[in-house]
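ingest -> fold -> write
write: protein_1
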Amino acid sequence: MNSSNSANLLAAFPTSTGANTPETLFIVFFDGDSANGGVRCDLPDVSHLTRENVDDEWIVFVNWAQTVAQTAVKAGRVALIYNTVHPLTDAPSVSPVGVLASSITRLLNRLNVELDDVCIISQDGWARFTQEDDGR
């Protein structure tokens, strides 16, 4: 799968993978400009997650985060695509999945994983977290 931008990647993703499973994270592996594989992970329950409690709640997600980190480190260059039924609201970065995505992105940045893209697909739109503005 080749894509020139996030919108094209997200438009092609469900058809290309044959999956549109809610409450999942797809870790897409890249080789050059082409995706060459990936894995799907179920998301932990994030319905109660906020920026204010993420540090306190992190212990609940630590095993899940370790699995994601180990997979991404082995792959080298990845895109993270979160698929959720939770609304993104007017500020995707403070939505429950947005808080989780931000935490995982910070973890992978500390591990020097090359993040090609970090996006969330939701019932009320999509957002990109690899630029300052949310994609919507």
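write: protein_2
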Amino acid sequence: MPIEAVKIPQNVYVEDKIIGPFSLRQLAITGIGAGIGYMFYGIAVKNGVRNIIGLGACWIPTVMAIAFAFLKINDLSLLRLILLFIESLNKPKERYWSPHTGLSINLITTQATKEIAITNKKITTNASRLAEITRQMEKRQEAINHLSAHDLPSPDALEPVKTQIEKVDRKNQERVDTIEAAKTESSQATTLPVNPTKIQTDGLDLERSIDGIAHENSIYERLIAKQA
């Protein structure tokens, strides 16, 4: 089923015409003005006014009503012109226009203070560790270069070093013997639930003990200092 054509209203602000070219608003304004003029005329005649000027002044409201109803200037009625004139008295005569700067939005992202402190602490710790490792490697490299730059020491020069190492080994052996004796006494004093003969333990490697390594390092450092 085809859609029927619908008439779209055009110029909806045009008033409906009642009698000929006159609209309802124009007829109402003219009738009110004529009624006021006739009322003034009747009052003047009742009071004995007979001159033309006096009687003509009674119809001034009617003339004004006709002007408000039918007079138009640039498609503006007289009432509209009067209202615009009153409005212009209260508003400035000149206006200046300038572009608006608009809104400026600055997005600032901040990191939590606690996270920044933790990160800075980690960075400082890692940097200090790296610096310490670098210093140790440089010292070792300098010692190696110093040893390679000189001839190997003679057996006579190494004799005091060997004597000190033997003394350290004897002291470590005495400590181990003392510990073993104390263990033997404690095992004899108490009855153990396990047969000690069935338990096998390895002895302490005296050559790689911590004390021995420490003394060896000190001895080698002294030897390097003497060669320097």
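write: annotation protein_2
The chain has three domains: 17-90, 111-149, 152-189+206-228.
Residues 111-149 form one domain.
pipeline exit 0
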